[in-house]
Amino acid sequence: MRRLSLIAVLAAVCVVVIPALSLADKVEVYTVKEEDVSPMELRNQALAEGFARAVADETQTLLGGALDANRLEAVRLYFVDHSKTYIQGYNILSSEDVEDGLMMTLDVRVNRRTLRDGLTRLGFFETARTPQPAAVAWPEEIAEEDLVKLQALMVMSGLKQSAGVYPAFTLEYGPEETYKGALLLEGTEWTSAGKDMSVVWTNLWTRFFTRPQNDVAGPKRQLLTISGWFTPDGVLEFDRVLKGWDYAVQDSRLVEMDIQPTGVGATWDMNILDSKRLATLLNSFLPQRGLSFQLNRDSGQ
């Protein structure tokens, strides 16, 4: 029996599998022209809307279609001003001035890996199907526009308004047209301030969702062992397939290959984002190919 590391396997078969970092998404946008808006400003608005739609669509794909229409719209609204980090590139396929606005068709390439990391930090994989209870409070004199934006951020983040629970978020007005946010847990308080409410909000909730998770539900590090291949090529092909299941698993790594006269097996180390969906994928993909699998908790985590 021979057990090979991933590096040794790649060297032996001279194959390197590199997953795609970006995916192209064709989007069409129509932007209404407002008074005193220059053609360049209108073009930039159309681009921002196109980027937001592409990133929102990719978010829905990464989450396995888990977002309802209201949350998906809130996600799109958020990304109108916060999508550039996730854009790998774009092409303008067509642009047409119409009587009251601009119609544009874009081919937008979204960096899936960067987006997945960002969504993880914002808690999307934790709240995709189960809302996070939270107490959210705002000042009595809050402007209607600010209240609408705050409520949209709550929907975007997958929060369920609940009285008297932790985490508890409080929004206040600060000096010079700034916002101040405070996020309170039992024994812990984080604060953030700035002129963009969305940035204040995400700064705090990122800290919440990236805190040490020893006592809460979160991604579980596990080992996936599969046996039954005839050659190492099948292992490397499945490694590519597994990386495409990034709405169910995250950070999968091929850590060992076991080559025996009777067949080839392999082990992956990964974070499980959705155990039920992963089990469904494995059961639909492996048995019909004569493969068997076993999942075990990684004792090193």
Description:
- The chain is an alpha+beta fold and about 300 residues long.
- The protein has three domains: about 20-120, Dodecin subunit-like (2-Layer Sandwich); about 125-210, Double Stranded RNA Binding Domain (2-Layer Sandwich); about 220-295, ACT domain (Alpha-Beta Plaits), CATH 3.30.70.260.
- About 35% of the residues lie in helices and about 35% in strands.
- It contains nine helices and 13 strands.
- It has helices at about 5-15, 40-60, 70-80, 110-120, 125, 145-155, 195-210, 230-245, 275-285, and strands spanning about 1-5, 20-30, 85-100, 100-110, 130-135, 160, 170-175, 180-185, 190-195, 220-230, 250-260, 265-270, 290-295.
- The chain has a five-stranded antiparallel beta sheet with strand order 1-11-12-10-13. A five-stranded mixed beta sheet has the order 6-5-7-8-9.
- Strand 11 and strand 12 form a beta hairpin.
- Helix 6 (about 145-155) runs parallel beside helix 7.
- The longest helix is centred in the first third of the chain and has 24 residues, at about 40-60.
- The chain starts with a strand and ends with a strand.
- The model is unreliable at about 1-20 and about 215-220 (pLDDT under 50).
